[in-house]
Amino acid sequence: MPNADQIKALVRSHLEGNDTQFLSVAMQIAAYEARKGHGKLAQELRELIDEAKARRNPLTQPDRAPTPITKARGELSSLVSSSYPTQRLSSIVVSEQVQARLKRIIREQRHFARIREHGLSPRRKLLLIGPPGTGKTLTASVLAGELGLPLFEVRLDGLISKFMGETAAKLRLIFDAIGSQRATYFFDEFDAIASQRGLGNDVGEIRRVLNSFLQLIEQDQSNSLIVAATNHPEILDHAVFRRFDDVVEYRMPEPAQIAETLKTRLGAMADSTIVWDELADSASGLSYADITRAADEAIKEAIIADHSSVARDVLVRALEERRAIHQR
Fold first, then answer.
1. Which CATH architecture has domain 255-327?
2. pLDDT tens across 59-96, in order?
3. For position 60, what pLDDT does the model report?
4. Staple partner for 18: which of 13, 124, 223, 289, CB 3.0–4.6 Å?
5. CA 170 to CA 157: how far, in whole Å?
6. Considering only CA atoms, which of 319, 228, 249 is closest in space to residue 94?
7. Chain-centre distance of CA 294, in angstroms?
8. Which CATH architecture does the domain made up of 74-249 adopt?
9. Digit-coded pLDDT (tens) for 267-305
């Protein structure tokens, strides 16, 4: 039987959600059993460990979701919401430049250990900037899905407190989790905690929160992926940009991307008579989110009318409705 320290380490790593430590202790137990002459048990344990590692590896099991060993607990549960995304890079339509940047990030993360062996660090602190609806939030899910990591989205309503000092303390709690549980941590509407010092009403508190974030992200040497997104990069403090490994800029879709988004969303429901270039021109100026919603509305109309495809005029009307919403 494994000794008491090994049993405690196994349970502790499970409670903390530290998959790497959990499997490491399990391997130690397998080795212990092998030394005791329990060869069959040791072999069975090794096979189970190898299977667990394969399930966690998106390269060997690309269609399998990671096993949710842990979720945020205690006070942390009020600060983050956790999920296990299944989205892949093919799920998002962005410019070729953004696509190339995301591929590079994913490639470096998949070769994390090899890069670290040479004294270097893969890109893992990312700042996403650009207008609403251009794919920033979906990118966080895509990165988590591609890497087989849980996604912890920081809840600003739980993080930002009216009491002096509490927000900074909660930030420290989040960064403690970043260091102990490898995952993708997503700070949406990042400008709420990283705007230029001196812009808010409570200048002192804003300065303390921003200084805490800058210090914590500078000190962070974890294996987690930190993703921040903002629609307002112009109000971010200049010191923020230097703390990130990569800044990825998202733009409104061009005609080719509009057409691709509509084709992808409509799928087999697209009418064969649709001229995509003309339709893309009519959707110019809309975000990816607006285009996706318009396509969904058109599909619902077709379903209700018992039609097998979405007619062009129905789709154009849905796109015009989305444009009208923004012109009010």
1. Orthogonal Bundle (1.10)
2. 444 444 444 445 666 667 778 888 999 889 988 888 89
3. 42
4. 13
5. 12
6. 249
7. 25
8. 3-Layer(aba) Sandwich (3.40)
9. 888 888 888 888 888 788 889 889 999 999 999 999 999
Identify the DSSP state of 306: T
Contact 134, 252 (CB under 8 A): yes
Would you say 251 and 134 are in contact if contact means Cβ atoms under 8 Å apart? Answer: yes
Q: Distance between CA atoms of 314 and 308, rounded to whole angstroms?
A: 13
Tokens of 261: 């988004």
What is the Cα–Cα distance from 219 to 212, expressed in whole angstroms?
A: 11
Residue type, 123: R
Instruction: Give the span between the Cα atoms of 251 and 67, in whole angstroms.
Output: 35
Question: How many Å is the Cα radius of gyration of the chain?
Answer: 24
Q: Would you state the torsion angle of the CA atoms of residues 165, 170, 173, 179, taken in this order, to the nearest 10 degrees?
A: -100
Domain ranges of the chain: 4-56, 74-249, 255-327
Which DSSP helix (H) or strand (E) runs through 259?
A: helix 255-266
**Residue 164 pLDDT grade (very low, low, confident, very high; cuts 50, 70, 90):** low
Orientation angle between helical segments 19-35 and 39-56, nearest 10 degrees:
160
DSSP track, 104-147: HHHHHHHTHHHHHHTT-----EEEEESSTTSSHHHHHHHHHHHH
pTM for this prediction: 0.71
- Say if CB 250 and CB 149 are below 8 A apart: no
Q: Exposed, middle or buried, 68 (CB in 10 Å: 0-12/13-18/19+)?
A: exposed
Helices and strands: H and E segment counts in the chain: 15, 6
